[in-house]
């Protein structure tokens, strides 16, 4: 067998007592080698994905109970196995999509097809596609995990809430017991249209989904999470999930966020994935700044802005320029005794819109972003726009998309009119932060915040 197609078992992520194990999947019997243990499920998932890629395991199975699977992560190397006629060889071949060598060669299509099914089962390829001599598909076969829809048990549905599902075909490996896929009355309640059912099935912790914003290219949902906390889910619209450039744009911004999500003012990432579209679930607070920012005392508004400045300073580095600073992406935890802010998104939506060529103007968007560029002082502009809104209780430019883009590009701001508790001395500070030329702004968020705090 070609050495570039290793025959290794899938991995599994399973809870044992209070810890999560990453181990070999041994046909449903949990007696495989254990590779690592983790206190948190998300750490186990990350470890399993890394090992899967590095050691070329075909997939990783994440269990949420003794007999139910919540997610299957696939190695791209095992995405598809093809049965096709090779004119150069003059025979029917079985070849991986990403492979360079045929795994099998036969004189007849029937023999190649039968051998292809055996190889798919033995090597755990996700899909098998068989073609005729003209290159037309005549048979497609999914891995048994997909045929049995094993991840369906990750979220329970009311029977009346879903369409009936035909029974799976007979398992072609009778000695292996497939994980159960159950339907019971522990329901998932969807507030609004029913489109995120697949999303819920990909995230085992989801028990209720509330639609926050489902009109754009990136949608937002809210859901309860473990321990009585709240989470939001950011997911690319199903309309654009497979468009060119979308997944890399999403992943690039997300990877930096995940790298620093243990920082005090960066929203904690619970989970992320790519099915059915790229998504990320992260912890949020009781409110967003958009909801209550102008109801807070002025000093508290400044303190919250200081938290955001700390977050930006943590996330930004020489290879990652910050954007995505909007009141709706700033989450507030606490209450009358004090509020603490965390920041999410970190430009994911901007990057996806840019990949799709979709306009993304708003009163908080820097002029260079409208041209698809980021600068080191883009975050200063966005912080200045948030500060303007907090201290003047209006946006620096008109909120309609057309008017805001024109005003942002030319720097035609509304004359700052600070609220009564704020000195007029903040006006030049805000104007400098909101300069249309990136080089005319403060050189860093800290420099801007220092001057703002001293002028209020």
Structure in words:
The model is unreliable at 150-202 (pLDDT under 50). The chain is built from 12 helices and 19 strands. A 6-stranded mixed β-sheet has the order 11-12-13-14-16-15. A 5-stranded mixed β-sheet has the order 3-2-1-4-5, covered by helices on one side. A 5-stranded mixed β-sheet has the order 8-7-6-9-10. With 456 residues, the chain is an alpha+beta fold. 28% of the residues lie in helices and 23% in strands. β11, α4 (197-202) and β12 form a beta-alpha-beta unit.
Strand-helix topology:
Blueprint: E1 11-16, E2 19-24, E3 34-38, H1 41-55, E4 59-65, E5 68-74, E6 80-86, E7 91-96, E8 104-106, H2 109-123, E9 127-131, E10 137-142, H3 144-147, E11 189-191, H4 197-202, E12 208-213, E13 218-224, E14 230-236, H5 246-259, E15 269-273, E16 279-284, E17 287-288, H6 289-292, H7 298-315, E18 330-335, E19 338-343, H8 348-356, H9 378-392, H10 401-410, H11 426-433, H12 445-455
Parallel strand pairs: 1-4, 6-9, 11-12
Antiparallel strand pairs: 1-2, 2-3, 4-5, 6-7, 7-8, 9-10, 12-13, 13-14, 14-16, 15-16, 17-18, 18-19
């Amino acid at each position: 067998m070609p050495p570039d197609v290793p025959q290794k078992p899938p991995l599994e992520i399973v809870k044992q007592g209070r810890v999560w194990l990453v181990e070999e999947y041994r046909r449903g019997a949990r007696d495989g080698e254990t590779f690592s243990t983790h206190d948190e499920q998300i750490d186990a998932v990350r470890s399993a994905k890394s090992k899967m890629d590095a050691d070329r395991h075909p997939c990783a199975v994440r269990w949420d109970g003794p007999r139910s699977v919540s997610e299957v992560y696939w190695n791209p190397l095992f995405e598809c196995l093809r049965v096709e006629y090779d004119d150069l060889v003059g025979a029917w071949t079985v070849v991986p999509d990403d492979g360079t060598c045929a795994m099998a060669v036969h004189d007849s299509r029937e023999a190649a097809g039968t051998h292809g099914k055996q190889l798919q089962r033995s090597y755990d390829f996700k899909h098998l596609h068989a073609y005729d001599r003209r290159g037309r598909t005549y048979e497609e076969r999914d891995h048994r995990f997909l045929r049995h829809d094993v991840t369906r048990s990750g979220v329970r549905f009311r029977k009346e809430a879903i369409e009936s599902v035909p029974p799976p075909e007979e398992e072609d490996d009778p000695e292996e017991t497939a994980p159960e896929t159950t339907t019971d009355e522990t329901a998932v309640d969807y507030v609004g249209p029913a489109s995120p059912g697949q999303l819920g099935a990909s995230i085992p912790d989801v028990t209720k989904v509330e639609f926050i914003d489902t009109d754009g290219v990136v949608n937002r949902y809210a859901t309860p999470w473990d321990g009585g906390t709240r989470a939001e889910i950011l997911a690319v619209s199903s309309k654009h999930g497979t468009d060119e450039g979308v997944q890399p744009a999403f992943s690039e911004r997300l990877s930096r966020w995940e790298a620093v999500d243990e920082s005090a003012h960066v929203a904690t990432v619970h989970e992320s994935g790519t099915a059915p579209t790229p998504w990320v679930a992260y912890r949020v607070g009781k409110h967003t700044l958009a909801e209550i920012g102008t109801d807070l005392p002025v000093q508290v508004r400044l303190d919250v802005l200081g938290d955001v400045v700390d977050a930006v300073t943590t996330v930004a580095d020489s290879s990652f320029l910050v954007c995505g600073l909007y009141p709706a992406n700033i989450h507030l935890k606490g209450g009358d005794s004090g509020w603490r802010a965390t920041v999410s998104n970190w430009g994911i939506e901007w990057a996806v819109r840019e990949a799709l060529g979709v306009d993304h103007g708003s009163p908080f968007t820097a002029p260079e972003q409208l041209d698809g560029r980021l600068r080191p002082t883009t975050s200063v502009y966005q912080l200045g726009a948030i500060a303007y809104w907090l201290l003047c209780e209006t946006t620096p430019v008109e909120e309609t998309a057309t008017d805001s883009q024109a005003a942002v590009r030319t720097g035609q701001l509304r004359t700052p009119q600070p609220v009564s508790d704020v000195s007029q001395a903040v006006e030049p500070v805000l104007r400098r932060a909101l300069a249309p030329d990136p080089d005319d702004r403060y050189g860093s968020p800290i420099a801007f915040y220092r001057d703002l705090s001293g002028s209020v």
